[in-house]
Design a protein that fits this description.
There is one protein chain. With 315 residues, the chain is mainly alpha-helical. The chain has 14 helices and 2 strands. A hairpin with a 4-residue loop joins strand 1 and strand 2. It is globular, with a radius of gyration of 26 Å. The two termini are 36 Å apart.
Length: 315
């Protein structure tokens, strides 16, 4: 299954884009400072608000700071917040969803009641309140706030799948021989949820980046750091759109959109593998077989039979 997953062109494109931005987030700032000799905080007084040129690849903002350097540096804040919040939200959702779905009874009712209450709360508004209350919250704190508020929806999905797996023959057999509950959940049930968990993590990653960008756009969070949302927020506050300075807000916006596109491609690849009706290769083979069978039936007056052993149509 892993080989089939990695052979999908959509998955290859999506993973390539995600790996590229991860490399930029880890090594980008080091590259621009040591190789390109660019300082994101340096001010070029002779080129304030200048358009892209050979000297400044993506131009400068109104303060004379290089937009390319700031975009590369901002990748670390945005990507790391997405990864940390996405991982945290996925882990909590899996733990709560599997344990609730397998336990059923009172534990399940109480847990789902708590989850339903959390789902009714406006998570984005809560993020604004909490992040605004914590003065100058760092990247890790912002990621933790986002992660702790984004898991309830995923927990409901995991719980519904766990309820189905709980009634399968293999779990019933393990319960009958006295296998411990935690081992059935973690060793037997969780691996069967791999496709759902992977897709959930990718969605949580993008949601984390969007949430951080929204907070930074409104000037809430880590005001001393740099992120794509903060770039867009500064551009909006200083009238970049009205001034026609597209190079200030467009690059970080495109980066956010590309990460969303990459995760969508990977999810499409997962759907094609886990859902046979979406498997393009299987569908193509089925259509070819049906056309061949129809031609052979029309060209023969004798009764025809399909042989499952040989995979051919015989008279």
């Amino acid at each position: 299954m892993l080989k089939q997953f990695l052979s999908s062109r959509k998955v290859q494109v999506g993973i390539s884009v995600l790996i590229f931005f991860l490399i930029v987030a880890i090594f980008g700032e080091l590259f621009i400072t040591t190789v390109m000799n660019l300082d994101p905080a340096a001010v070029d007084y002779e080129n304030m608000g200048s358009a892209p040129s050979s000297e400044h690849l993506l131009g400068t903002n109104l303060a004379g700071q290089d937009v390319f350097a700031q975009t590369v540096k901002g990748a670390r804040g945005s990507v790391f917040v997405g990864l940390i919040s996405g991982l945290l939200a996925t882990v909590i959702a899996v733990l709560v969803g599997t344990w609730s779905g397998y336990s059923v009874g009172l534990i399940d009712k109480v847990t789902m009641a708590f989850v339903n209450v959390l789902m009714t709360l406006p998570s984005l508004a809560l993020m604004f309140i909490i992040a605004g209350y914590i003065n100058n919250a760092g990247i890790v704190m912002i990621a933790l706030i986002i992660g702790f508020l984004e898991w309830p929806g995923g927990a409901r999905v995991i719980r519904s799948q766990t309820l189905s797996l709980r009634n399968r023959d293999f779990t019933a057999a393990l319960r009958s021989i006295g296998e411990k509950r935690w081992r059935i959940v973690m060793v037997e049930i969780v691996p069967h949820l791999g496709g759902i968990i992977s897709a959930m993590f990718l969605r949580a990653l993008v949601a984390g980046i969007f949430a951080e960008s929204s907070l930074a756009f409104l000037g809430i969070g880590n005001t001393n750091g740099m992120s794509w949302g903060m770039q867009i927020g500064q551009a909006q506050q200083q009238g970049a759109l009205l001034r026609g300075m597209w190079w200030w807000f467009l690059p970080p916006g495109i980066c956010i959109a590309l990460i969303g596109f990459a995760t969508a491609m990977v999810n499409f690849g997962l759907d094609e593998i886990t859902n046979p009706s979406l498997n393009a290769r299987l569908t193509s083979i089925t259509h070819k077989f049906n056309r061949k069978r129809d031609r052979e039936i029309r060209s023969s007056d004798q009764p025809v039979m399909w042989s499952a052993d040989t995979g051919t149509v015989t008279s």
